[in-house]
Write a structure and sequence with these properties.
Order of helices and strands of chain A: EHEHEEHHHHHH
Helix content of chain A: 40-55%
CATH topology of the largest domain in chain A: Glutathione S-transferase Yfyf (Class Pi), Chain A, domain 2
Oligomer: homodimer
Number of helices of chain A: 8
Strand order of the largest sheet of chain A: 2-1-3-4
Radius of gyration of chain A: 17 Å
CATH class of the largest domain in chain A: Mainly Alpha
Distance between the termini of chain A: 42 Å
Chain lengths: 229, 229
């Protein structure tokens, strides 16, 4: 039976990007609906009371649609319903490491780095809150550097962030970094292992739609969609 | 083979409580190590670079110990390794709803309610940051009321938060509420369905250890460990 899949998302939202990457890697076709979630559209709030994207809706035949809200619920469902390719690893230790890093990027990286930068660069623009605060931006960039050191250390010992296999941990990191990279704020040259890792990710077919995202009126940094930056 | 299980945790940390409830409900024996995580003890940081509790360590025979960091990684592992009783439901929609609510309490409830209250009542005491800020406390209590209305609405239509079966969603909500309840800050009388639900949870064997927690020098509210409050 064919499944109709709709992802309600926002192109520069890291959590939306993470789900787009997972869907792409699993080669699951889906329709994207870009949602101005900060305006609290009623259709979105009815599906997800938290008012956040991403929300994935799957319709198969006459059954009630399956509405999946919040990134972890969507990713866990995709692993369970479409186990190949596995994006969490197969052994308990591998899975635990991928999940540890998922939380790391969802919480720690967001609180210490991307949250500052994306609030100043995106949310203030969307909500007409005035120009970026340079102190907050600096705090975000300092946090970003600390986190890039963590990535660099992990990648000195491992091919992918959680171990020998590509996993959702890589996509979680890349979903945040790719948005920051749109604004040219990732100091790649100081982190060669992270840069090589990101180039490998960028070359995957699942990444192409993200590199084609454009925010009306604001072009990305020159190297944003360059696979060999 | 016997498994030695050690949970590094802090008694008044909601995430630690959530894992204790899941372990208890699955009747998995474990040793608790109370950790002053805010002092960044080296043993903890070596296991979990984020420096946060809970961390669960399982040792079985001669194999390398399995170190599980961050609540979602621990909970997902427990579901996979010890599937009975199932704490996420069996059908896709049930599981998605339990996971949606897990994120709701991990993020939204924490940002809007418990984060304010527990920072003022616990973290300021642990870190000697001075007396609670009444404005912040009020903001947390206002947020708490809004969230209690959400619980009340869910419980008007459902036996448990995610549906017909007890799930991690109930434990996630109760882990936060039980800490706030230690300080007597949950206005139960205005939320009769939530109160009945919480009484049912409190009566479960897995809840007993939480009701026995005592913070040295600070007794809990009088009804804290009363099963029929």
């Amino acid at each position: 039976m064919t499944v109709d899949r709709t992802l309600h998302q926002f192109p520069l939202d890291p959590a939306s990007r993470l789900v787009r990457l997972a869907l792409g890697e699993k080669r699951l076709p889906f329709v994207e609906v870009s949602t101005r979630y900060w305006e609290r559209p009623r259709e979105l709030t009815r599906m997800n009371p938290s008012g956040l994207v991403p929300v994935l809706v799957e319709r198969a035949g006459e059954a009630a649609p399956l509405v999946l809200c919040e990134p972890r619920a969507i990713l866990d469902y995709l692993e369970e319903a479409y186990p190949e390719p596995a994006l969490l690893g197969r052994e308990a230790a591998e899975r635990a490491e991928a999940r540890r890093l998922l939380t790391w990027f969802e919480r720690k990286f967001e609180f210490e780095a991307s949250g500052f930068i994306l609030h100043e660069k995106i949310e203030k623009r969307l909500l007409s809150l005035g120009p970026p605060d340079l102190g907050a931006l600096r705090q975000g960039r300092d946090g970003l550097k600390l986190h890039l050191h963590v990535l660099e250390d992990l990648l000195a010992a491992r091919e992918w962030l959680a171990g020998r296999r590509l996993s959702l941990a890589d996509f979680a990191a890349a979903s945040h970094l790719s948005v920051i990279d749109y604004f040219g704020d990732v100091p790649w040259r100081d982190f060669p292992a992270a840069k090589t890792w990101y180039m490998k990710l960028k070359s995957r077919p699942c990444f192409r739609p993200l590199l084609a995202d454009r925010w009306p009126g604001l072009a990305p940094a020159g190297h944003y969609d360059d696979l060999d930056f």
